[in-house]
Design a protein that fits this description.
By secondary structure, this protein is of the alpha+beta class. The chain contains 3 helices and 4 strands. The longest helix is centred in the first third of the chain and has 16 residues.
Length: about 100
């Protein structure tokens, strides 16, 4: 299992449009094979910065999604709204050592 965090910075006037795009595509992404979870978080300040957090079965599932028509369609509608380049991290949970 992998976890993916993506930082998305939008032009303030396009925030509502992004929220519409995300709302429309969220359920389709959630049921995409290999996706276990997806959520959207908004920065309190500045409020035009968002983060997506998703959980995938593995890197192959994420890459399959990134090559899919669903991703291409979603991304084409989203990237034109950016104010800055997106940043993405694939992260793993760090478990504390057992005592």
């Amino acid at each position: 299992m992998i976890k993916r965090i993506v930082k998305l910075s939008f032009q303030p006037q396009f925030v509502e449009r992004f929220l519409e795009v995300f709302a429309y595509h969220r359920e389709r992404i959630q049921v995409f094979p290999g996706c276990q979870h997806i959520e959207l978080m908004r920065c309190k300040s500045p409020d035009h910065i968002f983060f997506t957090f998703s959980i995938w079965d593995n890197e192959e599932a994420l890459e399959t999604y990134r090559q899919s028509e669903l991703f291409k369609n979603t991304w084409s509608k989203t990237k034109v709204l950016f104010s800055d380049r997106p940043e993405a991290w694939t992260v793993l949970l760090v478990k504390p050592p057992l005592c």
